[in-house]
Amino acid sequence: MRQRRSSRAPLLRGSGPLAKVPPAVVFLVVLVLFGLGIWLHGPLGAGLLGLLGLGVLGLLAGTWAALRPADRVLRVLVVLILFAVALSVLHR
Predict the structure, then answer these.
(1) Fewer CB near the last or first residue (10 Å), C or N of the chain?
(2) Nearest-angstrom CA–CA distance, 15 and 22
(3) pLDDT tens profile 26-51
(4) How many CB atoms lie within 10 A of CB 49?
């Protein structure tokens, strides 16, 4: 069984495809996608929010083993809320 890291331990820089992307850029991309998804009602807005949700699901799948059960529940809840918002934007 894998040992879990302490939540107080410093994060280690990874070597994955997102390792060299600055966090501020990721934040801005997520903010723009979410904002456009809410602003552009209908299928286009729902599609942008769905795309954002799929990206979050991909990140969740990649980090699933490292998360505690409580963290998993919260992240799944966030994804479900994001897809619920996408559905509400679709039906406007």
Answers:
(1) N
(2) 14
(3) 999 999 999 999 999 899 999 999 99
(4) 25
